[in-house]
Amino acid sequence: MYTLYDFSPSGNCYKIRLLLNQLGISYERINVDILNKESRTPEFLKINPNGRTPVLCHDGKYLAESNAILWYLAAHTDFIPKGNYEQAQVLQWMFFEQFSHEPNIATARYWISILNEEDEYKEALKAKISQGYAALDVMEQHLQNHDYFVTNQYSIADIALYAYTHVAEEGKFDLSGYKRINAWFERVESQKNYISIKSQV
Amino acid sequence: MYTLYDFSPSGNCYKIRLLLNQLGISYERINVDILNKESRTPEFLKINPNGRTPVLCHDGKYLAESNAILWYLAAHTDFIPKGNYEQAQVLQWMFFEQFSHEPNIATARYWISILNEEDEYKEALKAKISQGYAALDVMEQHLQNHDYFVTNQYSIADIALYAYTHVAEEGKFDLSGYKRINAWFERVESQKNYISIKSQV
């Protein structure tokens, strides 16, 4: 029995919905409206003391942090490569995503397209945009010689990076010059049981 | 053959030095002076296109991101618990560290005690301090019922969180009220083959 505490527009939550669908795992979705501070209620803080979505509940056990949840669900499946070095490379890209990518690209999207407060965040956005492009440049460079991020095979590293990259234009990032990233989008979107971030499946 | 590309004051680099020592792995240390922009040279960017330390080289293969390196080195040792859920909990705390903890606590220390530019960052520090205390509160709460972060056994989750927490006062965080965290420091520091962040071993 799986339950996902989910905020629908969140790329971090979408990662989990995408993988659950690709693994054919059925689950209950509980909507947590973070705009209405529902991730900071006393009840939710019992589930995740860090007050963030997504949270997965599996047979009564709770797990937070999107990329840790991806790892948990994908263990012993083809979504994680087998070798120790290859698994560490998956984690390398997922830590890159949470440290160098998400705080810039997802935050710009959140301020501009979810809160609709671009003007209020005008100054702070400058650093986010510059650092976000730096992260996109690292991805574009890697994809010059690779179809996917690790072992040239679709893995949870691709899911983690795809989630916010493919909606980066909602944070006013111009992706038109990123040919390798755009070609990789098509490869991700052609995977079996792919669903979009807007899918209500 | 292991080589660590290392910036000595960095907590992220210290994580790797501590685990390597606890595993009894000998290695070469190559100093990368990030204050002198040595992590952004064309040579270094070939090793890590994201331009950050630490980087581990093992038998010619490179790996970046401190917590991914911890995972790589600790695989199949007692520093990672065995179960799938327990392993995902280790990752949950390591992603918490890189997303909610390090960008606040390590950055305040970097600005104040490494760059010595507290005045220049006065405004930006306010948010870092507030969010850093929030991360410390999450840790203190967890340690009310646990001796260590996962399975009540010392693991790489403890190493990841210890690295910047135990020097948080260098970022002007007052840890005196965090009794559980201070007691956990003692448990970490009593581990076999523990070395301090200043050790030149």
Automatic annotation (TrEMBL), chains A, B:
Span of domain GST N-terminal: 1-81
Domain of life the protein comes from: Bacteria
SUPFAM superfamilies: GST C-terminal domain-like, Thioredoxin-like
Annotated ranges, domain GST C-terminal: 83-201
PROSITE patterns with a match to the protein in the record: GST_CTER, GST_NTER
Gene3D superfamilies: 1.20.1050.10, Glutaredoxin
InterPro entries cross-referenced by the UniProt entry: Glutathione-S-Trfase_C-like, Glutathione-S-Trfase_C_sf, Glutathione_S-Trfase, Glutathione_S-Trfase_N, GST_C, Thioredoxin-like_sf
GO MF annotation terms: transferase activity
CDD domains, alphabetized: GST_N_4
The protein's name: Glutathione S-transferase
Naturally occurring in which organism (per UniProt): Methyloprofundus sedimenti
